[in-house]
Amino acid sequence: MVPGPEAPTAPQAPAAEAGARRNLIPFLSKTTVLSIGAVETLVVGAVLDAVKDTAKSFIPSAQLISNFVKSYPALTIGGIALAITATLAATYLVWRLPQDRRAAVTSALQRPRVVYSSFSIAVFSSGVLIAVLVCLMVRPAWCPSQICQVGLAAYPGPNDGYIGAEVFAIQSDTILIPGDPSNYSLGHMPDGTGPKAVAADLVQQATGVHAPANPAYRVAFRLQSLRSDMGEMSIEQVALLVTRTAAPGRVNAWYEGNVVDLEQNPHITRYSGQAPGQLLVATWVDPTQFGHVQLSPGESDIITVRLWSDIPIELTYRIQVTYRFLGHGELRTFQVPQNVEVVFASQLQWTEYQLRNGKLQPG
Question: I want to staple 302 with a disulfide (CB 3.0 to 4.6 A). Which of 87, 192, 240, 264 is the partner?
Answer without folding.
Answer: 264
